[in-house]
Amino acid sequence: MTRPSNDSLLRALLREPTDQTPIWLMRQAGRYLPEYCETRRRAGSFLQLCRNPALACEVTLQPLARYDLDAAILFSDILTVPDAMGLGLYFTDGEGPRFERPLREEWAIRDLSAPDPWDHLRYVMDAVSEIRRALNNSVPLIGFAGSPYTLACYMVEGASSSDYRHIKRMLYERPDLLHRILSVTADAVSSYLNAQIDCGAQAVMIFDSWGGSLSAAAYHEFSLPYLRRIVASLIRERDGERVPSIVFTKGGGLWLESIAETGCDAIGVDWTIDIGAARRRVGHLVALQGNLDPGVLFASPGRVAAEARTVVDSYGFDNTGHVFNLGHGISQFTPPENVTALVDAVHEHSRKSQKKMH
Predict the structure, then answer these.
(1) What share of the chain is helix, strand, coil (3-state, %, to 5)?
(2) What ranges in the chain are assigned the alpha helix state H?
(3) Catalytic residue positions?
(4) Rounded to two decimals, what is the model's pTM?
(5) Could you give the residue ranges of the DSSP H alpha helices within 83-159?
(6) Per-residue pLDDT tens over the stretch 54-100
(7) pLDDT tens across 333-346, in order?
(8) pLDDT(347) > 80
(9) Do the Cβ atoms of 234 and 194 come closer than 8 Å?
Protein backbone atom coordinates (compact mmCIF):
# COMPACT_ATOMS: atom_id res chain seq x y z
CA MET A 1 0.00 0.00 0.00
CA THR A 2 1.41 3.35 -1.01
CA ARG A 3 0.38 6.63 0.54
CA PRO A 4 -2.52 8.47 -1.11
CA SER A 5 -1.70 10.92 -3.88
CA ASN A 6 -2.76 13.64 -1.43
CA ASP A 7 -1.08 12.50 1.79
CA SER A 8 -0.98 15.89 3.53
CA LEU A 9 -3.28 14.70 6.34
CA LEU A 10 -1.03 11.75 7.14
CA ARG A 11 2.05 13.95 6.96
CA ALA A 12 0.53 16.50 9.33
CA LEU A 13 -0.58 13.83 11.81
CA LEU A 14 2.98 12.47 11.85
CA ARG A 15 4.40 16.01 12.15
CA GLU A 16 6.06 15.89 8.75
CA PRO A 17 6.19 19.11 6.65
CA THR A 18 3.28 19.90 4.30
CA ASP A 19 2.89 22.52 1.54
CA GLN A 20 -0.40 23.65 3.08
CA THR A 21 -2.45 22.89 6.17
CA PRO A 22 -4.73 19.93 5.47
CA ILE A 23 -8.41 20.25 6.39
CA TRP A 24 -11.29 17.89 7.01
CA LEU A 25 -14.42 18.46 9.11
CA MET A 26 -16.07 16.43 11.83
CA ARG A 27 -19.48 15.35 10.47
CA GLN A 28 -18.45 16.55 7.00
CA ALA A 29 -20.96 14.08 5.54
CA GLY A 30 -24.19 15.24 7.12
CA ARG A 31 -27.49 17.04 7.13
CA TYR A 32 -26.13 20.42 5.97
CA LEU A 33 -25.68 18.86 2.50
CA PRO A 34 -28.85 18.48 0.43
CA GLU A 35 -27.38 15.45 -1.34
CA TYR A 36 -26.89 13.73 2.02
CA CYS A 37 -30.51 14.40 2.99
CA GLU A 38 -31.65 12.87 -0.30
CA THR A 39 -29.57 9.71 0.23
CA ARG A 40 -30.81 9.41 3.81
CA ARG A 41 -34.39 9.70 2.57
CA ARG A 42 -33.72 6.85 0.12
CA ALA A 43 -32.20 4.76 2.90
CA GLY A 44 -35.34 5.13 5.00
CA SER A 45 -33.63 6.01 8.28
CA PHE A 46 -30.28 7.01 9.75
CA LEU A 47 -29.60 3.48 11.04
CA GLN A 48 -30.47 1.92 7.68
CA LEU A 49 -28.08 4.37 6.05
CA CYS A 50 -25.29 3.34 8.46
CA ARG A 51 -25.99 -0.35 7.86
CA ASN A 52 -25.94 -0.14 4.05
CA PRO A 53 -22.27 -0.19 2.91
CA ALA A 54 -23.07 1.14 -0.59
CA LEU A 55 -25.05 4.12 0.77
CA ALA A 56 -22.51 4.74 3.56
CA CYS A 57 -19.86 4.91 0.85
CA GLU A 58 -22.01 7.28 -1.22
CA VAL A 59 -22.47 9.79 1.62
CA THR A 60 -18.80 9.51 2.69
CA LEU A 61 -17.77 10.68 -0.78
CA GLN A 62 -20.36 13.46 -1.16
CA PRO A 63 -18.40 16.21 0.64
CA LEU A 64 -15.25 15.32 -1.32
CA ALA A 65 -17.12 15.83 -4.58
CA ARG A 66 -18.17 19.29 -3.40
CA TYR A 67 -15.08 20.53 -1.50
CA ASP A 68 -11.29 20.29 -1.78
CA LEU A 69 -10.99 18.32 1.47
CA ASP A 70 -7.83 16.42 2.41
CA ALA A 71 -9.45 13.34 3.94
CA ALA A 72 -12.57 11.22 3.98
CA ILE A 73 -14.02 9.95 7.25
CA LEU A 74 -16.06 6.77 7.42
CA PHE A 75 -19.78 7.48 7.62
CA SER A 76 -21.05 5.65 10.68
CA ASP A 77 -22.01 6.37 14.29
CA ILE A 78 -20.15 5.92 17.57
CA LEU A 79 -23.10 3.94 18.97
CA THR A 80 -22.66 1.00 16.60
CA VAL A 81 -20.44 -0.65 19.27
CA PRO A 82 -22.96 -0.61 22.17
CA ASP A 83 -25.67 -1.56 19.65
CA ALA A 84 -23.60 -4.65 18.81
CA MET A 85 -23.45 -5.38 22.56
CA GLY A 86 -27.22 -5.89 22.49
CA LEU A 87 -28.48 -2.67 24.08
CA GLY A 88 -31.09 -2.06 21.36
CA LEU A 89 -30.16 1.20 19.64
CA TYR A 90 -32.97 3.18 18.04
CA PHE A 91 -33.46 6.78 16.89
CA THR A 92 -36.53 8.97 17.39
CA ASP A 93 -37.07 12.09 15.31
CA GLY A 94 -35.97 15.21 17.14
CA GLU A 95 -34.69 13.30 20.16
CA GLY A 96 -31.53 11.57 18.96
CA PRO A 97 -30.30 8.09 19.85
CA ARG A 98 -31.80 5.93 22.58
CA PHE A 99 -31.19 2.45 23.98
CA GLU A 100 -34.00 0.06 24.82
CA ARG A 101 -31.91 -1.67 27.50
CA PRO A 102 -29.64 0.83 29.31
CA LEU A 103 -27.09 -0.63 31.73
CA ARG A 104 -28.50 -0.08 35.21
CA GLU A 105 -28.52 -3.60 36.72
CA GLU A 106 -25.45 -5.27 38.12
CA TRP A 107 -26.18 -8.58 36.39
CA ALA A 108 -26.41 -6.89 32.99
CA ILE A 109 -23.08 -5.15 33.56
CA ARG A 110 -21.44 -8.42 34.65
CA ASP A 111 -22.82 -10.15 31.52
CA LEU A 112 -21.53 -7.46 29.12
CA SER A 113 -19.08 -8.72 26.50
CA ALA A 114 -17.14 -7.19 23.61
CA PRO A 115 -18.67 -8.00 20.20
CA ASP A 116 -16.63 -9.51 17.38
CA PRO A 117 -16.39 -6.66 14.82
CA TRP A 118 -16.10 -9.15 11.94
CA ASP A 119 -19.42 -10.66 12.95
CA HIS A 120 -21.68 -8.10 14.64
CA LEU A 121 -20.23 -5.04 12.86
CA ARG A 122 -19.49 -6.57 9.48
CA TYR A 123 -21.50 -3.85 7.72
CA VAL A 124 -19.02 -1.24 9.00
CA MET A 125 -16.05 -3.27 7.77
CA ASP A 126 -17.71 -3.71 4.37
CA ALA A 127 -18.28 0.06 4.21
CA VAL A 128 -14.60 0.77 5.01
CA SER A 129 -13.47 -1.60 2.25
CA GLU A 130 -15.92 -0.13 -0.26
CA ILE A 131 -14.94 3.47 0.57
CA ARG A 132 -11.23 2.68 0.21
CA ARG A 133 -11.84 1.19 -3.21
CA ALA A 134 -13.96 4.17 -4.28
CA LEU A 135 -11.38 6.70 -3.07
CA ASN A 136 -8.75 4.96 -5.22
CA ASN A 137 -6.02 6.27 -2.89
CA SER A 138 -6.79 9.91 -3.68
CA VAL A 139 -7.02 11.03 -0.03
CA PRO A 140 -6.71 9.08 3.24
CA LEU A 141 -9.68 7.40 4.90
CA ILE A 142 -10.16 8.03 8.62
CA GLY A 143 -11.82 5.37 10.75
CA PHE A 144 -13.26 6.16 14.18
CA ALA A 145 -14.93 5.03 17.37
CA GLY A 146 -16.33 6.55 20.52
CA SER A 147 -14.26 6.51 23.70
CA PRO A 148 -15.20 4.06 26.46
CA TYR A 149 -16.40 6.83 28.79
CA THR A 150 -18.49 8.56 26.11
CA LEU A 151 -20.05 5.26 25.06
CA ALA A 152 -20.68 4.40 28.71
CA CYS A 153 -22.58 7.69 29.13
CA TYR A 154 -25.06 6.60 26.46
CA MET A 155 -25.10 2.98 27.66
CA VAL A 156 -25.93 3.91 31.27
CA GLU A 157 -28.13 6.98 30.66
CA GLY A 158 -29.96 5.28 27.78
CA ALA A 159 -29.82 8.50 25.72
CA SER A 160 -27.95 11.80 25.63
CA SER A 161 -28.11 13.64 28.94
CA SER A 162 -27.89 17.14 30.34
CA ASP A 163 -26.85 16.12 33.86
CA TYR A 164 -25.41 12.56 33.52
CA ARG A 165 -27.09 11.65 36.78
CA HIS A 166 -27.22 7.88 36.27
CA ILE A 167 -23.59 7.45 35.21
CA LYS A 168 -22.30 9.91 37.80
CA ARG A 169 -24.20 8.14 40.55
CA MET A 170 -22.55 4.90 39.41
CA LEU A 171 -19.15 6.61 39.14
CA TYR A 172 -19.23 7.79 42.75
CA GLU A 173 -21.24 4.97 44.39
CA ARG A 174 -20.27 1.88 42.37
CA PRO A 175 -17.04 2.71 40.55
CA ASP A 176 -16.37 -1.04 40.24
CA LEU A 177 -19.40 -1.38 37.94
CA LEU A 178 -18.39 1.58 35.80
CA HIS A 179 -14.83 0.24 35.49
CA ARG A 180 -16.32 -3.06 34.33
CA ILE A 181 -18.30 -1.29 31.58
CA LEU A 182 -15.26 0.78 30.58
CA SER A 183 -12.95 -2.23 30.46
CA VAL A 184 -15.24 -4.30 28.22
CA THR A 185 -15.91 -1.26 26.03
CA ALA A 186 -12.18 -0.49 25.70
CA ASP A 187 -11.62 -4.04 24.43
CA ALA A 188 -14.53 -3.63 22.01
CA VAL A 189 -13.26 -0.29 20.68
CA SER A 190 -9.71 -1.63 20.27
CA SER A 191 -10.79 -4.61 18.18
CA TYR A 192 -13.27 -2.44 16.23
CA LEU A 193 -10.62 0.14 15.27
CA ASN A 194 -8.08 -2.54 14.39
CA ALA A 195 -10.67 -4.22 12.15
CA GLN A 196 -11.21 -0.88 10.41
CA ILE A 197 -7.45 -0.59 9.90
CA ASP A 198 -7.37 -4.13 8.49
CA CYS A 199 -10.08 -3.09 6.01
CA GLY A 200 -8.16 0.00 4.87
CA ALA A 201 -8.58 2.90 7.34
CA GLN A 202 -5.34 4.92 7.13
CA ALA A 203 -5.81 6.92 10.35
CA VAL A 204 -8.16 6.45 13.30
CA MET A 205 -9.84 8.85 15.70
CA ILE A 206 -11.30 8.28 19.16
CA PHE A 207 -14.16 10.64 20.04
CA ASP A 208 -14.32 11.33 23.79
CA SER A 209 -17.23 13.71 23.34
CA TRP A 210 -18.39 13.64 26.99
CA GLY A 211 -14.99 13.37 28.73
CA GLY A 212 -15.11 17.09 29.40
CA SER A 213 -18.12 16.57 31.69
CA LEU A 214 -15.87 14.86 34.26
CA SER A 215 -13.96 16.42 37.14
CA ALA A 216 -10.17 16.44 36.74
CA ALA A 217 -9.77 13.50 39.13
CA ALA A 218 -12.58 11.52 37.48
CA TYR A 219 -11.20 12.16 33.99
CA HIS A 220 -7.85 10.74 35.04
CA GLU A 221 -9.52 7.65 36.50
CA PHE A 222 -12.46 6.91 34.21
CA SER A 223 -11.52 8.22 30.76
CA LEU A 224 -7.79 8.69 30.31
CA PRO A 225 -6.55 5.18 31.30
CA TYR A 226 -8.95 3.59 28.82
CA LEU A 227 -7.89 5.97 26.04
CA ARG A 228 -4.29 5.01 26.80
CA ARG A 229 -5.17 1.31 26.72
CA ILE A 230 -6.84 1.61 23.31
CA VAL A 231 -3.98 3.62 21.78
CA ALA A 232 -1.48 1.05 23.06
CA SER A 233 -3.47 -1.77 21.43
CA LEU A 234 -3.85 -0.17 17.99
CA ILE A 235 -2.15 -1.48 14.87
CA ARG A 236 0.62 1.08 14.38
CA GLU A 237 1.73 0.08 10.89
CA ARG A 238 0.00 -1.54 7.95
CA ASP A 239 1.63 -2.49 4.65
CA GLY A 240 4.73 -0.49 5.57
CA GLU A 241 2.84 2.74 6.40
CA ARG A 242 2.23 4.24 9.84
CA VAL A 243 -1.42 4.45 10.88
CA PRO A 244 -1.71 7.60 13.04
CA SER A 245 -4.20 7.95 15.88
CA ILE A 246 -6.12 11.05 17.02
CA VAL A 247 -7.70 11.48 20.46
CA PHE A 248 -10.36 14.16 20.89
CA THR A 249 -11.78 15.01 24.31
CA LYS A 250 -14.33 17.80 23.94
CA GLY A 251 -13.67 20.17 26.83
CA GLY A 252 -10.28 18.53 27.40
CA GLY A 253 -8.09 21.63 27.01
CA LEU A 254 -7.18 21.49 30.70
CA TRP A 255 -5.64 18.04 30.28
CA LEU A 256 -3.65 18.32 27.03
CA GLU A 257 -0.39 17.17 28.62
CA SER A 258 -2.08 14.06 30.02
CA ILE A 259 -3.74 13.28 26.68
CA ALA A 260 -0.39 13.70 24.87
CA GLU A 261 1.05 11.02 27.17
CA THR A 262 -1.47 8.41 25.97
CA GLY A 263 0.82 7.71 23.00
CA CYS A 264 -1.56 9.13 20.39
CA ASP A 265 -0.09 10.91 17.36
CA ALA A 266 -2.48 13.86 17.46
CA ILE A 267 -4.88 15.60 19.82
CA GLY A 268 -8.13 17.13 18.63
CA VAL A 269 -8.85 20.40 20.44
CA ASP A 270 -12.13 22.26 20.74
CA TRP A 271 -12.57 26.01 20.24
CA THR A 272 -12.31 26.94 23.93
CA ILE A 273 -8.51 26.93 23.84
CA ASP A 274 -6.16 28.98 21.66
CA ILE A 275 -4.43 26.54 19.32
CA GLY A 276 -1.15 28.45 19.55
CA ALA A 277 -1.21 28.06 23.33
CA ALA A 278 -2.01 24.36 22.90
CA ARG A 279 0.96 24.02 20.54
CA ARG A 280 3.31 25.63 23.05
CA ARG A 281 2.14 23.15 25.68
CA VAL A 282 2.26 19.87 23.73
CA GLY A 283 3.35 20.56 20.13
CA HIS A 284 6.73 18.93 20.71
CA LEU A 285 4.92 15.64 21.52
CA VAL A 286 1.90 15.46 19.19
CA ALA A 287 0.22 17.00 16.18
CA LEU A 288 -2.85 19.14 16.83
CA GLN A 289 -6.20 19.05 15.07
CA GLY A 290 -8.67 21.95 15.21
CA ASN A 291 -10.12 24.22 16.19
CA LEU A 292 -12.54 26.71 14.62
CA ASP A 293 -15.81 27.30 16.48
CA PRO A 294 -18.47 25.60 14.27
CA GLY A 295 -20.70 28.62 14.97
CA VAL A 296 -18.40 30.75 12.79
CA LEU A 297 -19.94 28.97 9.79
CA PHE A 298 -23.25 30.77 10.40
CA ALA A 299 -21.54 34.11 9.54
CA SER A 300 -20.78 35.54 6.09
CA PRO A 301 -18.24 33.77 3.84
CA GLY A 302 -15.85 36.70 4.33
CA ARG A 303 -16.01 36.39 8.09
CA VAL A 304 -15.59 32.59 7.85
CA ALA A 305 -12.39 33.10 5.83
CA ALA A 306 -11.07 35.71 8.28
CA GLU A 307 -11.67 33.47 11.29
CA ALA A 308 -9.99 30.56 9.49
CA ARG A 309 -6.92 32.69 8.85
CA THR A 310 -6.83 33.62 12.53
CA VAL A 311 -6.63 29.94 13.53
CA VAL A 312 -3.89 29.25 10.97
CA ASP A 313 -1.90 32.27 12.22
CA SER A 314 -2.41 31.29 15.84
CA TYR A 315 -0.92 27.87 15.18
CA GLY A 316 2.13 29.54 13.61
CA PHE A 317 3.73 30.17 10.23
CA ASP A 318 5.53 26.81 10.41
CA ASN A 319 2.35 24.75 10.10
CA THR A 320 4.06 21.39 10.64
CA GLY A 321 1.81 19.17 12.74
CA HIS A 322 -1.45 21.05 12.19
CA VAL A 323 -4.64 19.53 10.79
CA PHE A 324 -7.36 22.17 10.43
CA ASN A 325 -10.78 21.15 11.68
CA LEU A 326 -13.72 22.52 13.60
CA GLY A 327 -13.72 22.32 17.38
CA HIS A 328 -16.73 19.98 17.15
CA GLY A 329 -19.06 18.62 14.45
CA ILE A 330 -20.48 20.86 11.74
CA SER A 331 -24.06 22.01 12.37
CA GLN A 332 -26.89 20.83 10.14
CA PHE A 333 -27.83 24.51 9.68
CA THR A 334 -24.49 25.48 8.08
CA PRO A 335 -24.82 27.06 4.61
CA PRO A 336 -22.88 24.72 2.27
CA GLU A 337 -21.19 27.65 0.48
CA ASN A 338 -19.54 28.70 3.74
CA VAL A 339 -17.62 25.42 3.79
CA THR A 340 -16.16 26.34 0.39
CA ALA A 341 -14.99 29.66 1.86
CA LEU A 342 -13.46 27.84 4.83
CA VAL A 343 -11.57 25.19 2.87
CA ASP A 344 -10.23 27.68 0.33
CA ALA A 345 -9.12 30.13 3.03
CA VAL A 346 -7.25 27.46 4.99
CA HIS A 347 -5.40 26.20 1.92
CA GLU A 348 -4.58 29.60 0.46
CA HIS A 349 -3.53 31.26 3.70
CA SER A 350 -1.42 28.35 4.91
CA ARG A 351 0.36 28.17 1.53
CA LYS A 352 1.19 31.91 1.79
CA SER A 353 2.37 31.42 5.35
CA GLN A 354 4.68 28.62 4.25
CA LYS A 355 6.15 30.79 1.49
CA LYS A 356 6.92 33.52 4.04
CA MET A 357 8.86 30.95 6.03
CA HIS A 358 11.14 30.19 3.10
Answers:
(1) 55, 10, 35
(2) 8-13, 34-43, 46-50, 53-66, 80-82, 106-111, 117-120, 122-135, 148-157, 165-173, 175-199, 216-222, 224-233, 256-260, 275-282, 301-315, 336-357
(3) 27, 31, 40, 77, 154
(4) 0.97
(5) 106-111, 117-120, 122-135, 148-157
(6) 999 999 999 999 999 999 999 999 999 999 999 999 988 777 899 99
(7) 999 999 999 999 99
(8) yes
(9) yes
